[in-house]
Amino acid sequence: MALPATTPNVRVVTLTIDGRDLSAREDETIIEVCRENQIPIPSLCYLDGLSIWGGCRLCVVELEGQGRLFAACSTRVAEGMRIQTNTEKLQRYRRVIIELLFAERNHVCSVCVSNGHCELQWHAQKCGVDHVSVPYRQAAYPVDSSHEMFRMDHNRCILCTRCVRVCDEIEGAHTKDVMGRGSDCQIITDLAAPWGDSDTCTSCGKCVQVCPTGALVKQGTSAGEMVKDQHFLPILARRRHAQ
Amino acid sequence: MLLTGQDNEKAIIRELMKTLGSERSELIPILLAVQDEFGYVSEFSMQFIADQLKMSANEVYGVATFFHFINKKPKGKFIIRLSRDMSSIMKGAKSVARQLRNDLGIRMGETTPDGMFTLEWTSCIGMNYQAPAMMVNNEVFSNLTPPKVHRIIEDCRQELYAHRPTVGNVGETHASTLSYASHEPNAALNRLVQQRMSPADVSGELTVSGLKGRGGAGFPTGVKWNLASKAEGDVKYIICNADEGEPGTFKDRIILGKYADLVFEGMTLAAYAVGATEGIVYLRYEYTHLRPHLETILAARRKANLLGENILGKPGFCFDIRIHMGAGAYVCGEETALIESLEGRRGEPRNRPPYPVEKGFLGRPTVVNNVETLATASCIVARGAKWFTSIGTERSKGFKLFSVSGDCARPGVYELPWGMTVQQLLELVDGQGAKAVQVGGYTGELVPASQFDRVMGYEDLGIGGSIIVYGQGREMLEVAENYLEFFIEESCGQCTGCRIGNTKLLDGVRLLQKGTCSNRYLNDLIGLSHSIKTTSKCGLGQASPNIFIAINEHFKEEIMARPVLAA
Hints:
The complex is a heterodimer. By secondary structure, chain A is of the alpha+beta class. Chain A is 24% helix and 16% strand. Chain A has helices spanning 30-36, 88-104, 119-126, 162-171, 206-210, 232-242, and strands at residues 12-17, 20-25, 60-63, 69-71, 82-84, 143-144, 150-153, 176-179, 186-189, 216-218. Chain A has a five-stranded mixed beta sheet with strand order 2-1-5-3-4, with helices on one face. Chain A has a three-stranded antiparallel beta sheet with strand order 6-7-10. Chain B is an alpha/beta fold. Chain B folds into five domains: 5-66, Arc Repressor Mutant, subunit A; 80-158, Glutaredoxin; 187-389, NADH-ubiquinone oxidoreductase 51kDa subunit (Rossmann fold, 3-Layer(aba) Sandwich), CATH 3.40.50; 391-470, Ubiquitin-like (UB roll) (Roll), CATH 3.10.20; 476-561, Up-down Bundle (de novo design (two linked rop proteins)), CATH 1.20.1440.230. Chain B contains 24 helices and 13 strands. Chain B is globular, with a radius of gyration of 24 Å. At the A-B interface, helix 2 and strand 8 of A face helix 3, helix 4, helix 19, helix 20 and helix 21 of B. Chain B: InterPro entries: NADH-UbQ_OxRdtase_51kDa_CS (IPR001949), Nuo51_FMN-bd (IPR011538), Nuo51_FMN-bd_sf (IPR037225), NuoE_dom (IPR042128), NuoE_N (IPR041921), Nuop51_4Fe4S-bd (IPR019575), Nuop51_4Fe4S-bd_sf (IPR037207), Thioredoxin-like_sf (IPR036249).
């Protein structure tokens, strides 16, 4: 999480990202340094202000001298690091990951409330995903419309767990969590009960705003109408941390 | 006062928590105990446990649904779990399954209407050399045949089964664990006390010996202990990873059954080297039957002052060991996932660094070692590093325990020096003329007959000790299907590639079986395999597509030459 630079005695390190010489605080992660320096790295589960999950694997980068790839969101910078963020290999891997996310559930952009404002769609365009080469799983998932203000459509969920984390870490309600294992994973409200019956939910709507896709939306929105605003998050996160 | 059912449930849970503790890290033991009491964990229980542990109820729900052996719904009185690993399938698990289905009149995953039996597949239960095998509740039955399971079912119906002796509790195999058997009891600890070895001496001895982690990752043990001893922390932990889930591996079960003293001695050595005071054995649920045996040994060690305060009269040397049961998740064999589950969370691997030696269990420095590593460490400290380095090869020192199963005449556990070729091993176990050998379990490498001259050691096939032999008649697509089903079942679901990618690979294998997978799509899938390998967070994801790549590399003709089946 990006925290205020109040910690004294934090060393500064120098590193190279895509050939650019940069300096950064030692306690920063690669993705934070990239964001500060306008170096684009696609990411879905990472969100400034929330804890790090490291599950989507979209932000993988290459470190010189290391055989494997590293997730930029969960790797701290170090002195002399040489990082590549956009090689052909990485582009290929990212396309595969996005294709898999599309194929996992029923993502049909043209009829989605988030069409045009969806992070998955946006990354797909940026990464050059023009088709999905693996067949869609075509499994039917439920839509939970029981809440009076919001709706959860599991068909559009990518399991980034942003909603789980914002509900726990910022709102403090912990209404949402993940159940199951592997491809059976699903976001749940309380004990897998309808959202509308929840007695822990405060109806704050933060989960809806941080959701990258059309999985969590406001009731009454139609195709392309759901625009999200995440600006509140870093501010709240810093205030919460300062307490 | 009239007690309702729920009041009763609450009282029982409160009682259980008095003995187990009410820390969050006790969540899984509490869930298992509640299940023993009621047969399953109801939503009401989850809510009550969450309130008591000051957690959110849905967190408890998330944990309960993560683990295979925690039931959310009532199941039968006898839960029959038939092992689905490849060795079992090869030895006729499918005909056993048919017999069970016919006898009980239910399908896999169902419960009989009278609530007597539940029938399920389960991942490997560590009985591969006596395959096929199954568990009835916590009891293991092996070398199954359709008539035999019929009798077992009849016994269960008459509830005689409780008096049946446990089959295959300890290793009646061809096990030739020479070094372990000839280890003088507690020789390492005695040497430590008599020669006044310092903690650095102990880890130094191991570093010199070149012992590497026997769980599969192969990290130098001496270095790990040294790092943990230098890490800052008021409390440090030694964890013995007995979550032996790799299909085809059963050496740890044999070691714990026969040589548990060596393992506990190794943990005590580690505690001394690192400065830890608490040890935890993370025992997989499938080995519940070993627990009483292990508890007896621990009690004896406490009595002999080999555990507890001032061990062997050495002032300040305090250490004790407790056993923590897993609840059925292969991924918890990964050390950070293991720690997560110890802390009462879903067994999902953590982002590394920080490594457990710096920040592990409860944020404290933690050493996680495999059962075999710890037992071998005892042998090394007792006999000296020189003895160990005289065995093996230049880059792979010492010996290793191999669990051999599949198409060979003498399956079992073998203690062998590093540096043997696959061919030599096959001759030893009488499995000559094999089509292929899986070295290192499902996450390891499939070695075709043309490469049987490859050497087992860190320079080449340096991976865990599971060997599965495939005879000439075995179909590689069936093998791949079985492996991928296993990985899909056991993936934690965190990383995109592992969660979804493997389902696509399995679909691909099924297309190949039907003869309708185009060359182009096959190439796409190979690309996908490489993506899963490189982008996944933990070892499970990184190794899961190995089989798909291997069958393409070595058995391309076989898998592409299938006649097209009508849809």
